[in-house]
Amino acid sequence: MTEERRHEMGTGGYCVCPKCGEKTMHRDSVPCQEERCPDCGAKLLREGSHHHKLFQQKQEEKQKKESSE
Ligand SMILES: [Zn+2]
């Protein structure tokens, strides 16, 4: 049922820190982007969200570059 997921991320899931990779439980009332990493203080991304996917793509490109140099 991918149709439902397109509209709503649903409840549960995690917020991920783009800096250090820390994961925290997502709270329904608080968007991940308003949460801060308990470890380094960076803004968190919702795991599996559009922004998180973009971030992962960037990380992969970075790693490819770094490993080829
Ligand atoms: Zn962090």
Outline of this structure?
By secondary structure, the protein is of the alpha+beta class. Helices cover 36% and strands 12% of the residues.
How many domain modules? 1
Instruction: Return Rg in Å.
Output: 14 Å
* Hetero groups: zinc ion
Order of strands across the main sheet: 2-1-3
Helix content: 25-40%
Order of helices and strands: HEEEH
Structural class based on helices, strands and sheet pairing: alpha+beta
Average residue pLDDT: 87
Distance between the termini: 43 Å
Largest sheet: 3 strands, antiparallel
Shape summary:
elongated
Output the number of helix runs. 2
Low-confidence stretches: 2-7
How many strand segments? 3
Q: β content, as a range? A: 5-15%
Report on this structure.
The protein is an alpha+beta fold. The protein has one domain. Helix content is 36%, strand content 12%. It is built from 2 helices and 3 strands. It has a 3-stranded antiparallel sheet with strand order 2-1-3. A hairpin with a 6-residue loop joins strand 1 and strand 2. The protein is elongated, with a radius of gyration of 14 Å. The termini are far apart. Residues 2-7 have low confidence and may be disordered. Zinc ion is lined by residues 17, 19-20, 22, 37, 39-40, 42.
